[in-house]
Write a structure and sequence with these properties.
heterodimer, A: 166 residues, alpha/beta, Rossmann fold, 6 helices, globular, B: 368 residues, alpha+beta, 6-stranded mixed beta sheet, 18 strands
Chain lengths: 166, 368
């Protein structure tokens, strides 16, 4: 990944999100060299802490960088959104996105009931973003993300999507 | 696509079954000595049947029988799909007292449930009922010729021969080539010969090859096979950079180990895209790569396999482990050198929190 070109760092909470994120990247239309999926942070509060300590300075140093923070909202969407909003410096807000499932990935997987594994869910989410369709994206576990998802996609799709595999 | 591999009485693999059905890519993890590389070796043996001549020769030694039990048959079964046809190739070997070479006990090929040939020791029976005798040290599959208009056996031979089973040794990847070949060696020493064959037969592969290399080595410009007379050709890589543009030709042998792996990966991806769908079995593909490259490298090969072909890897590297889902990861383990290897999908094993942390805590792979 070239830090001097537009790129995304994905910081996520747990191992299930890892599989979702890697499924997203596996979509052949996604340029995985513009996206670095980091190791799981181990809890939403660690995601916040890592963002503060590592990614605020990183984003100041690398103006082409974007950060997607993926957390489980554990049923407290508004509270967590506000907590993260406080931690993101105003200047960096256009390049930082906070998304996640209303409860947790296991609940989401069970509720969508399509017999997909986490990686396959990630691949389908990528397809829905690329094709501007809404199937699992509008599931109640996910639909609170729509404004943030749209903002993220509009900001990153020009460099994240490619016509060919390489 | 390989659907299932069954191995019995081969080194540490006893009654070992790896179910890959529906998986375009798979990862084998486990402690040192748990049998990951032996799985590659089993596939290499199957590959060699259609590459190195039909005679068993020195491919199998008494030490290859589990705990030297050469009085019990060593058995292999490979279920795979080629052009929508479901194929199963099985054979068993033993080593009777006084023999200097393993003996084929039985051998069989089926396609979509229809028997193509069977063999009991020295007697081979074809699908049309014809029979013939064969030396019991010689595999039947590579020697049987099909009637005109049929291609099942040819497809099987081609599938096995062109399967890529590698544990590359970059120091052996010299860049020199005498003759083009489609059969990549286990240590990838003949890489340049394979690349020559691919580009000779499928020039369209170069576009994919070049695109991949440029994503990892942004100053890559081109390659050239420089004629060295009787010694064959030498692969030279041209890099260009700066303004005004300056070029630098570099002999392939002078590239770093990791860079050679990029070139190998580019070859595999290009071959898979323009030729027959490729099964690629790579023992520790991350061995020579820098940390930020590992994930992208693995993702590229997995993406390739999502389109067509299959990618099977072994690893100890945490970044590679994280690039596979629990459903595509298999955990190999054994309690001692006297016990058989067991294999379970990671999805069937419970662990808490981060997978790599759980592996470090030995929650998943245990020698108990």
């Amino acid at each position: 990944m070239n830090r001097y070109k537009p790129h995304i760092c994905v910081v996520f909470e747990d191992d299930k999100c890892r599989q979702l994120a890697h499924g997203f990247v596996l979509n052949h239309r996604i340029d995985d060299r513009r996206m670095q999926v980091m190791p799981p942070a181990g809890g939403w509060s660690n995601v916040l802490e890592i963002f503060r300590k590592e990614y605020v300075p990183y984003l100041h140093r690398f103006p082409e960088g974007y950060v997607v923070l993926v957390i489980d909202f554990d049923g407290r969407v508004i509270d967590r959104q506000q907590e993260f909003a406080k931690a993101i410096p105003e200047k960096l807000k256009p390049r930082v996105f906070v998304i996640g499932l209303k409860d947790d990935p296991e609940t989401f997987k069970r509720q969508i009931g399509l017999n997909l594994n986490f990686e396959q869910i990630g691949m389908q989410l990528a397809d829905e973003c690329l094709d501007a369709t809404f199937n699992i994206r509008q599931h109640e576990q996910c639909d609170h993300n729509k404004p943030e998802f749209d903002r993220c996609w509009q900001s990153t799709k020009d460099f994240l999507v490619r016509g060919t595999m390489f | 696509m390989i659907e299932r591999l069954y191995v019995n009485n081969f080194r540490c693999l006893e009654n070992f079954s790896l179910d890959l059905a529906g998986r375009s890519s798979a990862l084998l993890i486990g402690k040192n000595g748990c049998g990951k590389s032996t799985v590659s070796k089993a596939l290499e043996l199957l590959q060699s049947i259609c590459r190195q001549g039909a005679r068993i020769g020195k491919r199998i030694t008494p030490a290859d029988f589990t705990r030297h039990q050469s009085d019990r048959p060593m058995r292999f079964a490979l279920e795979f799909v080629v052009d929508s046809s479901r194929l199963e190739y099985t054979f068993a070997l033993d080593w009777p007292p006084g023999f200097h070479e393993a003996r084929i006990v039985d051998e069989k090929l089926t396609a979509d449930g229809q028997v193509q040939f069977t063999r009991q020791q020295g007697q081979v029976r074809l699908a049309d009922g014809n029979e013939f005798g064969l030396d019991w040290h010689v595999f039947a599959l590579p020697v049987i010729r099909e009637r005109q208009g049929r291609s099942i056996l040819q497809n099987v031979k081609s599938f096995l021969a062109t399967m890529i089973v590698v544990a590359p040794d970059p120091t052996q990847m010299s860049g020199y080539s005498r003759e083009p070949t489609t059969e990549l060696e286990y240590n990838a020493a003949n890489y340049t010969s394979c690349l020559r064959a691919l580009l000779d037969r499928k020039p369209a592969a170069y576009g994919i090859f070049e695109s991949y290399i440029k994503t990892v080595l942004s100053d890559f410009s081109s390659i050239e096979n420089v004629d060295h007379g009787d010694a064959g050709t030498q692969l030279v890589v041209e890099f260009k950079h700066g303004d005004p543009v300056c070029g630098l030709p570099v002999g392939f042998q002078a590239l770093s180990d990791g860079e050679k792996c990029f070139f190998l990966s580019a070859y595999i991806i290009a071959a898979n895209a323009v030729g027959n769908a490729t099964v690629c079995v790579w023992d520790e593909p991350d061995s020579h790569l820098s940390l930020p490259e590992v994930g992208h490298f693995i993702t590229s090969l997995r993406k390739m396999a999502c389109q067509r072909g299959q990618f099977i890897a072994t690893t100890h590297h945490p970044e590679t482990i994280r690039r596979f889902s629990d459903d595509s990861t298999f955990v190999l383990s054994r309690t001692s050198h006297l016990d058989p290897v067991t294999v379970r999908p990671l999805a069937d094993l419970n662990y808490q929190g981060d997978l790599v942390h759980a592996l470090l805590r030995d929650e998943i792979i245990s020698r108990q």
